[in-house]
């Protein structure tokens, strides 16, 4: 490492030139990486609902369905719109009343359930649009826009394809703002907390390059989720800022020992690399724990964020030293006072009241744990969008005007007896909350042979050994009523055909709920165990991992428990990933405080003096790091119209501050209370006799 660090320090200009050149392939990779806006597509492929979606797309040519409501328009004009929509490249078929009777025939002769399905009195009518591809494909998204252009202000397109279109448009428009506001707020924090006026700009440039490389390397994954794209940059900025601070502080220390800047930087790189490897390992482990999720969104987020931390570390020991050496003059010339206190009073307060602070830990932990376990989450993706988005307006019209909240697709064997199918349809229609069931047997009856039906019509309803039916429900996906309804629907369908499949947004969301609950427990366990093991190895201790993880978990419980006491319902993804992110990102604070405490104990038997010095020397770094993480995320939480993104960033920003207070005030109290246990169960916590003798001699 010595030779490498010396080479880095000597060739700063060359390294900076290479760093700039690497931006070109990184930019290429960024623009060639696809973005997935459909969270439901991350469900495991082996689930029956995902199998149903695959069959619908591959065999029936129907990737998704949307409902187009047309208001205040004569039927003849609606028919023209339907024809235009049906001719679009992304549309398989558009179904309306003129597919059943001629418009010259009074619609009153249609079955009542069909008129109830397609008409809201004289106010509006509904066209069922069957799309060729899935909800999030580029073809479908373009088709959604084309349909909206065709119908104008008199049309409202409901369904997941419209919701994803609005999500995509909003996210694409906001994402540049996320990075800008995160950078500006972080810059302000750094200017206030660091002595040099130039350093914050140098730090941001180095981290910006690391973020560009990370996003460019995502091309190896093929695609990333829009959640990952929105969060990865601000998280990488907030999490890796620590490493930059560590390097600069070490460089300044080395300059006091040697006037040679190259040697000072070489030594700083060596020492910083060793320290941040331990620090970054816990963060990487926390992010990689997301890969344990059955919902493959976790792997998507985990890999990108863990990769970002690793790239951040590499840039910290290569590009940042080059920037510091090049701008060394201005960095040390333009200095100012910081807002950070000396932490003298803070350290004295904590040491004096350590027992009370340890008791405060228990007082906080109990309600935090209860709130964390009882906090409610929502799974409906449309709840994360503003009410004035076109898809949400259309969704509300479906509910208010047609009493329809969700559409399910039922796939049964095409060999099933027509009488059984008719009986099944009748049973399904009696299920509470079912508005209508559309199936072949319902309209031709079991007495009429299907052989007389033209092949082009029959092929729309039968393919790949399955027969397709559509069921409309007045219950909203993810609601308790809808999930109970789906359970009853599945029971009825499987009674007639054990191999039948039920698909659609509501069944997919039901699977999402089931898997998300399992993922939450799994990810929490994996992240805690991984970080527990790392801390055990770092400190060679049995007791310290318990104390440190308990302190961070208390901060996480408090963060996730607050919504329960304030009555706020957070998106489901927050409960799964937030704990892991907060644990991985802020456990560094606990390690820093504990390491300094251990270091001070080598010089003295007085644990109180050791802790006082540990707080005094580490609180500034912890506060700067926490405030940087806070500033990188809070701006996004405030400005984002996408509640899924905004809520996650707000929770992360709050989590950084809660963790900061937990580590500066509560953890020292716990360490002092359990210091006798720590000494007996840890290696290296006994005073070094030589160092202690040297200290005593100086005193």
Automatic annotation (TrEMBL):
Species this protein is from: Intestinibacter bartlettii
Highest rank taxon of the organism: Bacteria
Assigned keywords, A-Z: Cell membrane, Membrane, Transmembrane, Transmembrane helix
One Pfam family it belongs to: MMPL
Residues in Membrane transport protein MMPL domain copies: 44-327, 470-674
TM region positions: 175-194, 201-220, 226-248, 268-290, 302-327, 572-592, 613-639, 651-674
Topology of this chain in the membrane: Multi-pass membrane protein
Lineage: Bacteria, Bacillati, Bacillota, Clostridia, Peptostreptococcales
Transport recorded as keyword: no
Localisation per UniProt entry: Cell membrane
Name of this protein: MMPL family transporter
Nucleotide-binding found in the keyword field: no
């Amino acid at each position: 490492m010595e030779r490498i660090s010396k080479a880095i320090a000597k060739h700063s200009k060359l390294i900076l030139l290479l760093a700039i050149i690497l931006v070109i392939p990184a930019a290429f990779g960024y623009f060639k990486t696809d973005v997935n806006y459909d969270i439901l597509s991350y469900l495991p492929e082996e689930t029956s609902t995902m199998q149903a979606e695959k069959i619908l797309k591959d065999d029936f040519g129907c990737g998704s369905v949307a409902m187009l409501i047309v208001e205040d328009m004569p039927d003849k004009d609606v028919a023209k719109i339907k024809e235009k929509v049906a001719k679009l490249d992304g549309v398989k078929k558009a179904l309306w009343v003129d597919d059943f009777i001629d418009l010259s025939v009074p619609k009153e002769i249609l079955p009542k359930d069909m008129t109830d399905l397609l008409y809201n009195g004289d106010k509006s009518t509904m066209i069922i649009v069957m799309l060729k591809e899935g909800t999030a494909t580029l073809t479908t998204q373009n088709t959604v826009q084309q349909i909206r252009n065709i119908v104008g202000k008199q049309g409202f397109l409901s369904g997941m394809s419209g919701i994803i279109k609005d999500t995509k448009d909003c996210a694409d428009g906001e994402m540049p703002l996320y990075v800008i506001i995160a950078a500006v707020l972080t810059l302000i924090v750094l200017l206030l907390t660091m002595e040099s006026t130039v350093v914050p700009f140098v730090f941001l440039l180095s981290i910006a390059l690391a973020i560009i490389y990370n996003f460019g390397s995502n091309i190896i994954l093929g695609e990333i989720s829009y959640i990952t794209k929105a969060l990865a940059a601000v998280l990488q900025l907030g999490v890796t800022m620590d490493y930059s601070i560590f390097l600069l502080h070490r460089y300044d220390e080395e300059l006091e020992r040697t006037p040679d800047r190259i040697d000072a930087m070489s030594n700083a790189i060596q020492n910083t690399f060793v320290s941040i490897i331990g620090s970054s390992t816990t963060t990487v482990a926390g992010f990689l724990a997301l890969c344990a999720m059955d919902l493959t969104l976790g792997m998507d987020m985990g890999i990108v964020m863990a990769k970002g931390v690793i790239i951040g570390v590499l840039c910290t020991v290569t590009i940042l030293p080059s920037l510091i050496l090049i701008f060394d003059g201005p960095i040390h010339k333009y200095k100012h006072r910081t807002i950070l206190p000396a932490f003298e009073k803070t350290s004295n307060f904590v040491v004096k009241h350590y027992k009370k602070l340890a008791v405060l830990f228990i007082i906080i932990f109990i309600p935090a744990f209860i709130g964390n376990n009882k906090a409610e989450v929502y799974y409906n993706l449309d709840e994360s969008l503003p009410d004035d988005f076109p898809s949400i307006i259309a969704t509300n019209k479906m509910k208010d005007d047609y009493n329809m909240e969700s559409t399910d697709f039922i796939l049964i064997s095409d060999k099933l007896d027509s009488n059984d199918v008719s009986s099944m349809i009748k049973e399904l229609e009696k299920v509470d909350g079912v508005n209508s069931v559309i199936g072949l047997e319902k309209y031709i009856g079991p007495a009429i042979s299907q052989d007389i039906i033209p092949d082009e019509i029959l092929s729309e309803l039968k393919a790949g050994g399955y027969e397709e039916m559509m069921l409309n429900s007045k219950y909203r996906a993810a609601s308790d009523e809808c999930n109970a309804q789906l359970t009853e629907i599945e029971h009825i369908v499987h009674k007639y055909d054990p191999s039948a499949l039920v698909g659609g947004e509501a069944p997919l969301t039901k699977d999402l709920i089931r898997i998300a609950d399992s993922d939450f427990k799994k990810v929490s366990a994996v992240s805690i165990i991984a970080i527990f093991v790392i801390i055990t190895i770092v400190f060679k201790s049995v007791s310290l991992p318990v104390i440190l993880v308990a302190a961070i978990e208390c901060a996480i419980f408090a963060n996730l428990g607050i919504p329960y006491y304030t009555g706020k319902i957070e998106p489901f993804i927050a409960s799964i990933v937030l704990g892991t992110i907060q644990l991985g990102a802020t456990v560094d604070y606990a390690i820093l405080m504990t390491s300094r405490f251990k270091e001070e104990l080598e010089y003295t038997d007085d644990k109180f003096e050791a802790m006082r010095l540990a707080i005094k020397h580490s609180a500034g770094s912890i506060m700067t790091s926490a405030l940087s993480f806070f500033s990188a995320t809070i701006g996004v939480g405030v400005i984002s119209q996408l509640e899924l993104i905004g809520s996650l960033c707000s929770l992360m920003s709050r989590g950084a501050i809660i963790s900061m207070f937990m580590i500066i005030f509560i953890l020292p109290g716990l360490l002092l209370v359990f210091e006798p246990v720590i000494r007996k169960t840890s290696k290296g916590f006994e005073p070094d006799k030589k160092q202690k003798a040297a200290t005593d001699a100086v005193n």
